[in-house]
Amino acid sequence: MTDGWTDKRRRTILNFLVNSPKGIVFLKSIDSSAISKIANKICKMLDDIVEEIGEENVVQIVTDNAANYKAVGELLMKKRKTLYWTPCAAHCIDLMLEDFEKKVPLFIKILFQKVEKLLPIFILGHL
Questions:
Q1: Which pairing describes strands 84-87 and 60-63: parallel, antiparallel, or unpaired?
Q2: How many CB atoms lie within 10 A of CB 14?
């Protein structure tokens, strides 16, 4: 699994974790600032990690859902036929919630317009 973040000096840091039946173990962190947007270079970096762990020990790679990581996932799965790439479910949900948050004001406006029209009818119907 990879988890990316940006430090105080604006460097892109990738943490690598390994999940096994015994639990999750931190493997290492890499400053990927110079390559974080270049799919071929990220693919090489992840491929090196797979080599380090041993291809026979890696079933799945989980990253965020950015376009460059989608491309990396496809490249890795073409190269290593037994490996699967999956976008992080938490990252996908976060993106959906951010999108929903942008649309909430419109949703609330429409809802209140409907309530203004329907509330008097509802009240009169229940007198």
A1: parallel
A2: 21
